[in-house]
Amino acid sequence: MGLKVAKEVKVGVVVVAAIAFFIWGYTFLKGKDLFEKTYTYYAVYSRVDGLAISAPVLVNGIKVGTVSDIHFLNDTNNNIVVELKIDKSFLIHDSTIAEIFSADLMGSRAIHLIQGRSKKYYRPNDTLLSSIEADLKTQVSAQVLPLKKKAEDLIKSIDSVMTVVQSIFDKQTRYNLSRSFESIRATVESLERTSISLDTLVQSEKYALTRIIANIESITENFRNNNELITNVMKNLSAFSDSLQQANVKQTIINANKALQDATVILEKINRGEGSLGMLIHNEQLYTNLENSSKNLDLLLRDLRENPKRYVHFSLFDFGRTVILEDNDKNRKKLKKESNENKGDTTFSYRIQIKSSKVPIPLNSKEFKGMDNVNETYAEGWYKYTIGSFNSKQEAEQTRLAIIEKFPGAFIVGFKGNKIFLNRLNSNMVNDSSQLEK
């Protein structure tokens, strides 16, 4: 009897265990766990878009609960209440949003909790804020709709362009285009031939081109070596241009215009016969008288040059060039006396004066090029430049004649020591040396 009771107990235990396992399995398949401790929260949606019971509830991709029930809310808008079972260990901040979204590409829906920043927390059985994420189809439609509109506008534009192109590219236009392409082809062929010719030329003139390039390199090297000099030149040009810019050019132009106007007035007066110049141009009698006076003056000067004794009986001195007209017997005798007195005097000499100036001239000046032993003597406010040192006037005259072509105004002077002692020796008297020696 005891054995029989034991079997029934075993059977009862097995049956109870089976029923309990069935109930647990059923609830597990529904997404419930009899042994899990959870809190219940609610969210209200206008639609659920395929959300099913046992759908996961995620936070940052981690499952924290499941959807335990979905039913209609008894209101006029037919809103839907979704019951959420959330793990007790997870606290939901106040203002957290329960958003329905697509969990995968197949369109499976789940709930994503977007945590709020409030320091307060929802209590069990509270209703969360809700939102619905657009599904893939809706998102694609939203992205494609603007593209569709743009594509339609583009097709319309292409259609308009094709209409215009068809109207423009008629038979004559196509013929002209064909000829243009033919001309382009001929041009390209000509360019090819030109390129071949240039290549041949370059090959044949390779050595010359190499030399040209070398010369260019040399020029650039010179520029580089003289960079500082070129910079100074550019600075000078810049300074010159600045000076021109600062100059009173406008006033200069005004003065030039005024001068031209004055010249115009003078020319008009001359044309009208006013003034001496106008009378000279327009009065033939005055011109004739002046011409006759000029002829008479020329005759007088010629007679004065040929017969000076008729008019001149004194010495004419030009201390600048020391050119003296000495042609009377008294001066000849005086010069002869001075010459005789200086015979045998080693300090007395004859020199040839080739130049005189109010300002000093450097002895290495180009004016004295080819002249040796040029001496400078300052006398009577003039700088006088002489060459040579001769004991007789004949030697000095020979040297003077040798340089007369380069220095037409050269003449002989007498020196005693380093001072001019006789500055009255002209060419005529030296040439007539026989009379001086008598």
Describe the structure.
The structure is a single chain. The chain is an alpha+beta fold and about 450 residues long. Among the domains are: about 1-25; about 30-135; about 330-435, Alpha-Beta Plaits (2-Layer Sandwich). Helices cover about 50% and strands about 20% of the residues. The chain has 12 helices and 12 strands. It has helices at about 1-30, 135-170, 170-205, 205-225, 225-245, 250-270, 275-280, 285-305, 330-340, 395-405, 425-430, 435; strands spanning about 40-45, 55-60, 60-70, 80-85, 95-100, 110-115, 125-130, 350-355, 375-380, 380-390, 410-415, 420. The chain has a 7-stranded mixed barrel. The N and C termini lie far apart (about 205 Å).
Physical arrangement of strands within the biggest beta sheet: 1-4-3-2-6-5-7
Structural class: alpha+beta
Output the number of helix runs: 12
Q: How many individual β-strands?
A: 12
End-to-end separation: 205 Å
- Proportion of residues in helical segments: 40-55%
* CATH top level class name of the domain at 329-437: Alpha Beta
Catalogue the unreliable spans: 313-328, 426-438
Could you name the key traits of this structure?
7-stranded mixed beta barrel; 438 residues; elongated; disordered C terminus; 5-stranded antiparallel sheet; Alpha-Beta Plaits; 51% helix; alpha+beta
How would you summarize what this structure contains?
This protein is of the alpha+beta class and 438 residues long.
